[in-house]
Amino acid sequence: MLSDSEQFILDYPTISAGEAFEVLRNHSIFDADYGDRGDIGCSFDPEGYEHIMYLNDEGEINTEELLAWLGY
User: Can you tell me the distance from the alpha carbon of 56 to that of 32, in angstroms, rounded to the nearest whole number?
Assistant: First the structure.
């Protein structure tokens, strides 16, 4: 039996950037935004920027990478 996150990855191998922001907000990451390297990132303090993942050519992200970054 698959976990919820494994099933989500199978059902949605990629999601839009907007959906990725929604997932991040649902995990209390409210400052995620587009970076200047074609990526999405966030900063946990004023000094730093943490890269989360790159957008593909269609403006979507790899769901497995996002969930791995979140610790699933």
Answer: 17
